[in-house]
Structure formats: C-alpha cells, structure tokens
# Entry
Amino acid sequence: MDKAALVAADPNDAVAIAGGGGSFASLRAYGWALADTPRRLARRAFAATAAGEEMSRVRARSGHRMARALRWWDLVGLGLGGMVGAGVFVTTGRATRLYAGPGVVVSYAIAGLCALLSAFCYTEFAVDMPVAGGAFSYLRVTFGEFAAFLTGANLIMEYVLSNAAVARSFTAYLGTAVGVDAPSKWRIPVPGLPEGFNQVDLVAVGVILLVSVCICYSTKESSLLNLFLTGVHVAFILFIIAMGFKFGDARNLTHAADPSNHPGGFFPHGAAGVFDGAAAVYLSYIGYDAVSTMAEEVERPHRDIPAGVSGSVVVVTALYCLMAASMSTLLPYDAIDLEAPFSGAFRGMVGKEWVSNVIGAGASLGILTSLMVAMLGQARYLCVIGRSGVMPAWLARVNPRTATPVNASAFLGLFTAALALFTDLDVLLNLVSIGTLFVFYMVANAVVYRRYVGDSGDTDHHHHHKWTKAWPTLAFLAGVSLSAITFTLVWQLAPTGGAGKAVLLAACAAAVMATVAVFQALVPQARAPGAWGVPGMPWVPSASVFLNVFLLGSLDPPSYVRFGIFSAAAVVVYVFYSVHASFDAEEGGGGGDGAKVQDVV
# Structure
C-alpha cells in the first residue's frame, strides 16, 4: 500500500491520534480504533517492510547500535553452548525409553538433517539481512506483519518454555552432583493443583533469575566467556562418550531389561518409533536459531554466518549421535532414567558412583550455557518485535551503559521463572517441539517465496503485478505442504502391513518430487541471492517443509490443542492490541516522538 492511501484515513483515526497517544489515548479513542479494526487489519496484516528499512530505520529505534565484534568461531561456540545441554540432557532419556529405543541415534541424525536444511534457509536470510530479529524479521519482509507476529509469538513461547524445561532439569542434575534425590527432596508438592503443575521448583527459578541478571549486564566479552564454558563443556561430553563406550555392553543395543513387557532389537518400536523420537529430540536444535539473532553483531556476515550456523549444527549432530550411542550401550533402553539418563546409568554400577556425580556437575554447567545463549536470543527477538511497533516500544530499548535490551531480558526472565516454578517437564517439552517445527516450516516457505517472487521492496510498484507473480509460488508451496500432510496422515493412520500403505507413501513422495521438478522447470527466480544462497533451490527448502510437516505429524494431539490455544491467544492480542499499535506507529501518532514510524510497502 502506498503513502498516498494513508492520507485518506478515517476521521476517527485523526481524532484518536490528535489525543496524543493514538489508539490507546483514552477509552473513547480505543473504541474508535476497535470500530475501525477491519480496515486496519486489511492495511496492516499483509504490510511488509523492505529489507533495507529493517536494517536501517527499524534498527535505529533501539538507539545504540550493537558492536560488530563476533566471528565464525564465536557463532559456532554460541551454537554449541545453546544447543548442547537442552537437548541431550533433557530429552534423550525420554525419547529413548518411550519412543525409539537404541534407535534414538538415528532419531538424532534425522532431526539433525532437518535442522541443517532449516539452517540453510535461515542462513540465506541472515547473510542478506543481518539483523537481530531472526525469523520474525525474515517473515516480516516476506509475508508481512501478521505472519511475522504469529511466528514471533510462537518463537517467544518456544524460548520461554524450553528455558523453563531446561531449568527444571538443572534441579535434577545439580542434585545428582551433590548426591541428593533432587526431584523428590528439592521440589515442593502443592496439594490441590492439577497433576503436572503441582511440583514447585525453587532451584529452577533461582537459576533463571541469576542468568537474567547476568545477561542484563553482559558485555562484548560474553562471547569469550561462552567459548571458555563451551570448551569445558565439550571436553566433558567427550568424557561421557568415552566412559559410556568403556563401561557399556553392546548387548544393551539389542536386548531389553524386561523382555516379557518390552520388545528387543535396535529398533524396538520400528520406523514409527524412530520418527516419533526424532520429533521429540528436535528440541535439541533450537540453539542455532538463537545464533541467527546474533547476526547484527557479526563482523563479516557473508563469511561468518554460513560457517557459524551450519558448522554448529553439523558438530552438534555428530556429538548427539555419539552421546546417544554411548548411553544406549550403558543400559537397556527400558531401564533408562527419564529425568537424568546419563548420571542415572552410572548410579547403579559398583565403584562408578563418582562418574554419576561428575556427569551431574558437567550437565549443570551445560545447562547454564544453553540457558544463557537461549535467553540472550529470546531477548533479542522480543527487542526487535518491540522495534516493529506490534508490541510496546519500551521492550526495544537498549540500555546505553550495558548495550543490552534490559527491558526485554527482565520481562522474559520473570515470565520464564513463573513457568518453571510449577510446570512439569513433559507439559513443556511437547509444546516446545511443535512451536519450533512451525517456525522452521514458515522460514523454509519464506525463503522460496522471496527467491521466486522477490521481497516487498522489489515488488511494491504494482499490487496486481505482485500477485500475478506470486500465485504460482504460493500454489507450489501449498502443493508441497498438502502432499506432506497427506504423506504424514497415511504414515500415521493407514494400517501397517501389506503393500497398500507402501504404495500410498511412494505415491505421495513421487507427487512432491514431481511438483518440485515442474516448478523448478517452469518458474524463473525473481531475485538472485546475495552473498550466500540456499543450495539446490527449490529442493532443499521443499525438503525442509516436507520434513517439518512430517515431524509435526509425530506429535501427540494435546500438543496441537495447546498450540491452537496459544496461536488463538496470539491472534486475539494482534486484533485487540498489536494491529492498532502498529497502525499508530505507521501514522507517526502513537510514539509521541515519531520514533516508531513504519513504512507500508
């Protein structure tokens, strides 16, 4: 939409804005704003910023610029620090015992491949547009404000919940390090609260608040601190892997502890168990997403970001697979401790109790690094969402003394601590996986759309011409998603055995490949990638879309209910608050000082 259209605004808007506070100046002004909601939604929901605006005027709303001091090894360190800890220590035991058995090694490899394909999509955006907003900014320049807001809300949810889950597991590992059964001794049961929300964990709250204080006072040396901690942590992981292979028994890879009740074999629950396990351990790869939020602070984005993001995913996948293999040799899969699988494995061995204590201490360290990196990332996301005008502008403020987004860090720290106080691990983990997969799915679609249609800054001259260019790409993306959904439904619902299921699955896979091949042959790319582009376009992002949809299908129904409720809540916030705040920012009346003026393209 062009600037001229803004002049013909409804008189109510002028009255509201004249009040000095835009739509929220008074109840009367807010009433006018609500009455005008349909028109505002039509204007703002699909309004996208140009990439240049996102990097210049939008970024300037935070005040102080962030120093470009990070190199590729800093990014690999941040990726390792962010990913390792949350994934292995929290989810491996659960995925092994409940879903995949020793085949969890393959689950990690599949989830790692899926993460690497998504990492390529993130990397193209981050190199072209090195800002702190990650997926929020990428979708804002591609699909517009509403898609970005919905994704941003899911990203914040994903970070807050994964941090709460990790902090609760910190309690279990710290207890192991000092020889206390922490889940029963340090968590306080509260009668009257529903199951899953009735164990109060004060240690988890303490560690979240401590990390929040640290990141509010972080300096440019924080990356060096992370590199040191991550180096110690990787050395500790290699120690675990070596101990597992030294004291383990290869028979545990194929034999259950209780054969009468649990099937044996390397894949006790078959291929379905392996893919269910892959969806469950996908939480392990949230960390590289936090690395993409550091793009604004990278010295040479076109060189450092591809090596840092993809490199960290490859290294972490290799570590995870080795670690899962060493754990599977230590104990039969049906004897693994769900809360603290690695230290629990050594606890029962005569003369090896000290290893359990060392593992507890090391895991506690790893959980601290992953919490710190994730909380750095979530604060930058919320800061950029504040810059965009869809959330209060005070969230975007960067403290001039510490050069950190203190408001966003403190707000999210308190929110995370409140969740970690009551909520059980299982409730948190399922919800996190679905949010992660949804965000990665959206970014994979966005990278195809931007390459074949161009972003808003390239195509805003003729609205009709833009949609003429866009429909083949949108139809293609819808076709890939529908084929993936069909494949997933057949996989989940069709009866096993017989050739019918295999034929249907092969037909769905062939349909996807044919769709991609036809699209590649018939539709030219509208823009060349900048310094770095996703290889194998459009095959790699299409594979990422397909894998993310498939892994989404492996999650349980309650996850979808919770995800639906949260997304609906995000839509309500957008309709009743964000669209009006954004509209005021666009008109220049809501911010008072004009600092939130936003272009509509």
